[in-house]
Amino acid sequence: MSKPIGSTPPSLRRLNASALLRHALGSDVFTASDAMASTGLSRATVIGLCDELVERGWLEELADTRGDDYRLGRPARRYTLRDRAGLLVGVDAAPHHVTTIVADLRGAVVERVTRRLDPDAVTPDERRAFVASVVDDALDAAGAVDADVLSCVVAVPAPTDAEGASPYGRGGWWASMNPGYAQEFAARGWQVVVENDANLAALAERALGEGRNVPSFATLLSGERFGAGFVVNDRLVRGSRGATGEMHVLELVSDVGSADGLGLLARKWVREAREAGELPAGSVLARLPLDELQAPAVFAAADAGDAAALAIVERLAERLARIAAILAGILDVDRMIVAGAVAPSVGLLLERARPYLERFSRPSAPDLVASTLGDSVVGLGAVTRALDLVREDPLSFSPAEPVQAGAEAP
Amino acid sequence: MSKPIGSTPPSLRRLNASALLRHALGSDVFTASDAMASTGLSRATVIGLCDELVERGWLEELADTRGDDYRLGRPARRYTLRDRAGLLVGVDAAPHHVTTIVADLRGAVVERVTRRLDPDAVTPDERRAFVASVVDDALDAAGAVDADVLSCVVAVPAPTDAEGASPYGRGGWWASMNPGYAQEFAARGWQVVVENDANLAALAERALGEGRNVPSFATLLSGERFGAGFVVNDRLVRGSRGATGEMHVLELVSDVGSADGLGLLARKWVREAREAGELPAGSVLARLPLDELQAPAVFAAADAGDAAALAIVERLAERLARIAAILAGILDVDRMIVAGAVAPSVGLLLERARPYLERFSRPSAPDLVASTLGDSVVGLGAVTRALDLVREDPLSFSPAEPVQAGAEAP
DNA sequence: CGACTTGCTTCAGGGTCTAAATATAGGTTA
DNA sequence: TAACCTATATTTAGACCCTGAAGCAAGTCG
């Protein structure tokens, strides 16, 4: 193998190689001409870099040299990212369940494994081991080993610091939700980031969802508790502890209410109504078994026109609008994205919330939309971030098992 | 003069020259060895770059070659930023007054001119002309001409977009506060930025005030209306329209109140109390002429122990604490800085606000401090930003009147 | 099959950096 | 005062890496 790219500090070669690799990460198959346009380098340079990146295992040259989009002239050599040059691992380590997504360097999901756990039945150490086992299962299912992985991002329902730890308040709950994932996975030789779940949800929306091409938006993760992730001027705003969007302060502002999420409130309110005997006999909500009396049932009943459900939705709508107006007003974002497991069923809720939002917003109201990423937002955000880690400085990673080009005699 | 630095696109030379120039902007006098340590370049390269930057008018070489800090060895050549290589202009274009600060490339204030105007007595065009005339006066006083200026930043009490315009709501008031400053000054060949005043105040605090070395903080500009500027993770968060921190939405949240600022509220409440006859006869506030019954008088009376003034301060304290808690909680900042003309007199107010803030904050309360920059914050923020513009890419500017080195025969 | 089109390869040239050798401008010391 | 010492300046050779131009190669088209 040739001398490592960019041995001396300011190396142009290294910068150019990174730029080329970023181009490769962002495109499917490409030719030297494509890369020339994208990087501004000359053909000779691009081809030299491609050769080197092939040798190092990042790229491979395709056999079928000509694509179908043109016919004249000498066919261009075509390169593409090597399929298994490296894998990315994204983990959603939520209180009640753990999801691991394994993706390739293009961000395509290779494997996805979810397992539930009882948050009250595990110690922090057991939780960490559980998460590790889910990751192992996902890698096994993908036919991969630790060495295939370049980076790993873990989403936790807690603020995190630069080291990926959560040594903060809430009576140790935050720390118990983040029992040393950073060390756990760094020990495998991976580049690891541990990040707040709402922040990662925002990154998923930017890359794959409703945040595409929106320079400033907020993502409201709104199941049991509200949590917000902000992308402002195309940049994630995470704060000192990654606690931007932790909305516990809202508990203290009347008319805005607690930081309770839509899922929790819908369940609570419908049960209160039933216990108080306020549900009309005709309502489906009066007959459901208690353990099915949850947010999805309420939203479904409202969609079907049930008056009691509609009343609850209306209350939720006003509350959501207040929170959205405050966040959007303070941070000057253009769009609010409601994400999480409830997202697919909040259509009517958002419809009802928009007039309130219009009224509460100065000078103009943001868009209010539902995420299309369902309950995978956080996991997808984690792999998105893992991919970003690679994109930031690809050459700091070594791809798995470089190609053994024809062995050269010394 | 030699060929322009960095003629071919990816030029390392240009990057290195910029890095060296940034070093020069941040240090007083420096030697090649200093620059080598700062940039990582070799001596030969550094000296080559210094020669070139001297030739182009950015640097000058000092005559006294040896400083006093060492004695042995060959004395090092010493360089420094050329004093008048360029000037920076910062303008605080507030409703009632216009301040222009002229500074040199080290950020040192060279000249400062303030003039008052009556916001109701001028058309937008007249306002623009007025601001331009204040700038002219300041430059005249500094003995400078337009060509000496590299960049100019104008602070306006309005949101601004990327082009420096304010085509937004509030019944045209915002637009009237920003009547085309960008074009006005760009026509002089200056690099111009028009930015919201609270955002610039935050930049001033970061560079010169209570925000130094604090990675995340907010600056509350709190005279007639509240406006906030946020620096999170060492980066200004300005939002789509630069309207981050416009707090009109707070008008709709009860217990938090309007976006009225401390100055306005103190005046309003003390006058209400007097009209309602609630001021005890012993209070100094009962005897002051009405036009002196303003925030400073209230704060001064409170400092002296006046009970009526203390009651007002207590009310202000709770309100300030609520706003601070919400902003700090949502954005996860470590410190709130109260800035503006009232800043020097809010000591007691902040003292009273801290217990409230402690109570309202989860998990931990931010620092609450008063700015030390007084009523110059905004103007200083504008020059700070103007200097940042130069720092970002120094070589895109041409310093004024380059040195005429010994004329070479062609 | 030859003309044509497009991409590749090679090579000379130039810009820029570094490392090492050498020169220089002072102090320090005998 | 002269020899020495130190830290810096200057010069030089060499390496790296990019570009542009010229020529070669691999296809399609008529």
End-to-end Cα distance of chain A, whole Å, is 11 Å
Biggest interface goes to:
A-B, 53 and 53 residues
In DSSP terms (H or I, runs of 4 or more residues), the helix count of chain A works out at 12
Radius of gyration of chain A: 25 Å
Key phrases:
homodimer, 410 residues, alpha/beta, Arc Repressor Mutant, subunit A, Nucleotidyltransferase, domain 5, 3 domains, five-stranded mixed beta sheet, 12 helices, 13 strands, 38% helix, disordered C terminus, DNA-binding
Topology:
Two copies of one chain form a homodimer.
Chain A: H1 12-26, E1 29-31, H2 32-39, H3 43-55, E2 59-61, E3 78-81, E4 87-93, E5 97-104, E6 109-116, H4 124-141, E7 149-156, H5 173-177, H6 181-186, E8 191-196, H7 197-208, E9 217-222, E10 226-232, E11 235-237, H8 262-275, H9 295-303, H10 307-331, E12 335-339, H11 347-360, E13 367-370, H12 377-392
Parallel strand pairs in A: 4-7, 7-8, 9-12, 12-13
Antiparallel strand pairs in A: 1-3, 2-3, 4-5, 5-6, 9-10, 10-11
Helix pairs in contact in A: 1-3, 2-3, 7-12, 8-10, 9-10, 10-11
The structure holds a DNA duplex (30 and 30 nucleotides).
